[in-house]
Design brief:
- The structure is a single chain.
- The chain is mostly helical and 163 residues long.
- The protein has eight helices and no strands.
- It is rod-shaped.
């Protein structure tokens, strides 16, 4: 009798597995397609979050810097260089942020000149910022500068075509 019971039991298990497989196969395809849709939605959400400032914590340039804070701020050549190194920017990028030439930054860092009061104010603001915020500002300034260049003057080829 034991042999018949085990044969019936194994046959029931086999048929049950077969039925489960039949039912799961269409669901497996649906799950795969839904995973693809979720992945696409996640990617589009990330791209929208990068573009949209809503819901994203952003640190803006500290708008409020008191004149007393600017006057009391020390700016030795070593401090200017260390600020630049801490922010991970080049002299050219610091010049872009402060609105001066690269030569002026070099002279500030060598001690030949000191920054004017309005430039000191910008540098005090930069002290309160982190690397990411400064990088973002640099990218914004570069994109604004690029837009101005394309709008302000026509190319040499365009000038030739006008003649």
């Amino acid at each position: 009798m034991g042999k018949v019971e085990s044969m019936i039991k194994s046959e029931i298990v086999r048929l049950a597995k077969r039925e489960v497989k039949k039912m799961a196969l269409p669901l497996k395809g649906e799950i795969k397609s839904l995973k693809g849709i979720v992945s696409q939605l996640r990617k589009s959400l990330l791209s929208l979050q990068r573009v949209s400032p809503i819901g994203v914590k952003e640190k803006k340039i500290p708008a409020e810097v008191t004149p007393a804070e600017v006057k009391s701020a020390r700016f030795s050549p070593r401090l200017i260089r260390s600020l630049r190194k801490r922010l991970g920017i080049t002299q050219r990028e610091l010049a872009l942020l402060t609105g001066v030439t690269v030569g002026a930054i070099h002279k500030w860092e060598s001690g030949k000149f000191k920054p004017a009061m309005e430039k000191r104010e910008i540098m005090v603001r930069l002290r309160k910022m982190g690397r990411r915020d400064v990088r973002k500002m640099i990218e914004d300034k570069k994109s604004q500068k690029g837009e101005k260049k394309t709008v302000s003057r026509p190319s040499k080829a365009a000038k030739r075509n006008l003649k």
